[in-house]
Amino acid sequence: MHREQLRTLAITGLVLGVAPLVLAHSEDGGHTDEDSMLRASEGAAKVALEEWPESYFRHPARSGLMMAHIVLMVVGWFVVAPLGMFYETTLFIYQHH
Asked: pTM value?
């Protein structure tokens, strides 16, 4: 891979990696009051788990799908990605010797 292609790929990866974080901020620009967050976390600790409202992460119909997604992502990042990098590095070394 040429340097320009590698730089373009790195910039694209950075932009695509940061975009969801930027878009996930709340309407107030992502700025929150630390005191209100602390009070909310203290209040949440006092509420029993059964009393919590339904959320995306607690939805009973999708818990298996979410666990499968987590397992596949962990396998992808910690098994497939390193093996792919080793393979590409090996190809690069043998092609240039």
From this structure: 0.42
